[in-house]
Amino acid sequence: MDANTRRIGVTVLGSTGSIGVNTLEVLERHAGRYRVVALTANTDVERLAEQCARFQPEFAVVAQTERAAELARRLRDARLDTRVLGGTDGLETVAALEQVDYVMAAIVGAAGLLPTLAAARAGKRILLANKEALVMSGRLLMDAVHRHAAELLPIDSEHNAIFQCMPLDYAKGLDHAGVRRILLTASGGPFLDIPLERLAAVTPEQACSHPNWDMGRKISVDSATMMNKGLEVIEACWLFDTTPDRVQVVVHPQSVIHSMVEYVDGSVLAQLGNPDMRIPIANALAWPDRIESGASALNMFEVAHLDFREPDLSRFACLRIAYEAMEAGGAATTVLNAANEVAVERFLEGKLPFPEIPRVIERTLAAVAAGEADSLESICEIDAEARSAACRLTDRGAARVQT
Ligand SMILES: NC(=O)c1ccc[n+]([C@@H]2O[C@H](COP(=O)([O-])OP(=O)(O)OC[C@H]3O[C@@H](n4cnc5c(N)ncnc54)[C@H](OP(=O)(O)O)[C@@H]3O)[C@@H](O)[C@H]2O)c1
What we know:
The structure is a single chain. By secondary structure, the protein is an alpha/beta fold. Helices cover 46% and strands 15% of the residues. The structure holds NADP nicotinamide-adenine-dinucleotide phosphate (NAP).
């Protein structure tokens, strides 16, 4: 498709979230190149209505159907002719529209799976922020991408960095490409050095105060437990067709190097930049070109030095559990993702102490027979079973700690 003759049509799934807002900033900067076709939210109709006024998309979707009428009323009052859709069907529709070329998959959690699959089946360029879709159904999503000649470009800053450091023909296999290992960097989050005995008392606000990144609440808690890095190990295995033993997590508290690729000749290529999600977003939107993202240039003199440490798996049990789930294969990562979502939600509600998060996940993995993750039906069934098991376990965990 020629960007000079037609603007590239973009759907932003999860436009009201942190990644969604950053994406719209980059798109606005390049309004001559991109056209916003559809925007979506879960419940935040106020922000979605503002975004519709600013970008005048053809479609807006509210996942919680009962809030769709309110958005329609706001848009009517503003004399906008954006069409309002509701529910998962609406999300799937706007991910697969003919006039859409690129789909930013930035819904948080398992709710992003169906629209991301719809985009893959419609052969779109998918800019994947929603790592949970790959974690819960890596085989299914990758098969759909290959079968329908879709493109999958990573938005996670680490995977986007790896993508930038990989040779062009990496899809033929890492051995063929001369790649020995992926070095996945991790900031370590807000609790990297906090004494372990203080973890039981940490609040959701403390867990959401990431030292380097401003993100949504769920991924912020995932960063604090380092489950985010565990999910990213799994994501890297699917994206770059490799195994967990070839993905080494490297704690790098400054978040300046976003990840590295180690080659068989001993070379290590790294991608550096300020911690600003507009950089990977602009990279994936424009690839193979480069466009301005709005991020400030990295000042190496201010950075001055870079630190690296091995991850402490006794402090960050979630990272160990994620490696084990990926090694177990099948639907173990589906169970892992579901249990983590439940445990994080309860923690954010103030109903589960922080150190219980890995315990709930580990017990859910032991309680649910994961089986194979070979169809959407089986994945949805296992996801539902894992969620109910995790709910029972979180309630028990919360009760035990309160008594
Ligand atoms: N933030 C980052 O810097 C970052 C970096 C790398 C990867 N990611 C990944 O990107 C994804 C989005 O993260 P985020 O930080 O942008 O999250 P966020 O700020 O919480 O935004 C989530 C978005 O998804 C929508 N949403 C939530 N639940 C939904 C549901 N059930 N159905 C449909 N839409 C739903 C939200 O709508 P409402 O606003 O209406 O709730 C919002 O638009 C996550 O998978 C995360 O792991 C984020």
